């Protein structure tokens, strides 16, 4: 059984290596080996205590957070349900009851 990845374009199993590239003989698609390695690595998001966070988790805020452009504050102990992980500095997308949609940094929450 071949350990080479299937073609991302046509899902052919007959890929082969050519230097530092993979090549599909059926659709002539070429892609870099480095790109295949990077796409298989998943980014791990951790909370303030080192617990791994996943989409759909519930978290609790561990610090009062001022909301930019507003006088409102997200208080310590506020529970946030059904989070979604995103790329960027603020890596949690969520809705907070009474405040609305916002993004949080994972370093200011703990897994509930």
UniProtKB/TrEMBL annotation:
Q: Where is the Protein YjdM C-terminal domain?
A: 45-112
Q: Signal peptide position in this chain? A: none
What Gene3D superfamilies does its record include?
A: 2.20.25.10, SH3 Domains
Q: Where is the Protein YjdM N-terminal domain?
A: 3-32
- State the source organism's domain of life: Bacteria
Q: Which family does it belong to?
A: Belongs to the YjdM family.
Q: Which PANTHER family does the entry mention?
A: PROTEIN YJDM (PTHR30305:SF3), PROTEIN YJDM-RELATED (PTHR30305)
The protein's name: Protein YjdM
């Amino acid at each position: 059984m071949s350990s080479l990845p299937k073609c991302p374009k046509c899902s052919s199993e007959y890929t082969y290596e050519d230097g530092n590239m993979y090549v599909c003989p059926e659709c002539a698609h070429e892609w870099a080996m480095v790109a295949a390695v990077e796409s298989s690595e998943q980014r791990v998001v951790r909370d303030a205590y080192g617990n791994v966070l996943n989409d759909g988790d519930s978290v609790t805020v561990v610090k009062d957070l001022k909301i930019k452009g507003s006088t409102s504050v997200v208080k310590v102990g506020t529970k946030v349900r059904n989070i979604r992980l995103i790329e960027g500095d603020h890596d949690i997308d969520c809705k907070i009851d009474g405040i609305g949609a916002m993004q949080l940094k994972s370093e200011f929450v703990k897994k509930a």
